[in-house]
Amino acid sequence: MMDGNNDSSQSHFILLGFSDRPHLERILFVVILIAYLLTLVGNTTIILVSQLDPHLHIPMYFFLTHLSFLDLSFTTSSIPQLLYNLNGYDKTISYTGCAIQLFLFLGLGGVECLLLAVMAYDRFVAVCKPLHYMIIMHPQLCLGLVSLAWGCGVANSLIMSPMTLWLPRCGYRKVDHFLCEMPALIQMACVNTAAVEGIAFILAVGIVLSPLTFILISYGYIVKAVLSIQSSSGRHKVFNTCGSHLTVVSLFYGNIIYMYMQPGTSSSKDQGKFLTLFYNIVTPLLNPLIYTLRNKEVKGALKRLLLGYRGVGKE
Predict the structure, then answer these.
(1) 13 Ramachandran zone, left/alpha/beta (phi>0; psi -120 to 50)
(2) Worst-scoring range by mean pLDDT, 116-125, 146-155, 219-228, 295-304?
(3) Whole-angstrom Cα distance, residue 315 to residue 309?
(4) Where are the transmembrane segments (predicted)?
């Protein structure tokens, strides 16, 4: 058996991705490139609108700005490498590149889980304690909650990334995935990985399931509060703002739980790749659309900015 240190010093990995389907690779390249460019435009627009329009300088859009930044970073951590691999015969990624990709994938994914829980708390306060909203959700608390989400997400990645990368692989370099994902790297190990998988599961409960439980409890209180609202216009407004967040939560958590919280043998490897692709590109692409199409404040801010720029252009 090859020593773990020798494995960890290997120069590169080979990302097999969709190499067994060359015709599919060409289609995927075009589709993913378009989706990636739209993701960059959509999330950058959300960030700019939230920063430039004074009407959106409230906690909800402070959190939304961080979510858009997360989606930009998360997608960019893997999609350019995937596009490079899809566009040619070279499927390699350097060991350093793989380590960075794994760290960002785990870290940013964990931050997003926790940030969605923070956003659920924001909606809970807005709906259940509207008169005290600005007092409770003061800037220091918002910054503290976001910092906590980032800190816990990065800490999780700092624990799991080295543990995964340092597993002995006995010379195996072929990763049966399109990115350096933790389950795919663990499967390559030539030793018993029960301890690593156990630690990963415990951390997943803290990073994934605990925030989800908090989100569900928050929305339980929100639904109860909505049912007590007499005016239909008031209910409609709450459904609009909370519906956007709940849709994003459903997309994100539905996919991540299906991927990570089931036994690895119960789904095909190809299915896992496509689910990860959905998680990597489709969810970040849809998030700006969901918040823009369902939210009058964002649409209004976009109109004001566009009209303002037109006015400047005419002058």
Answers:
(1) beta
(2) 295-304
(3) 10
(4) none
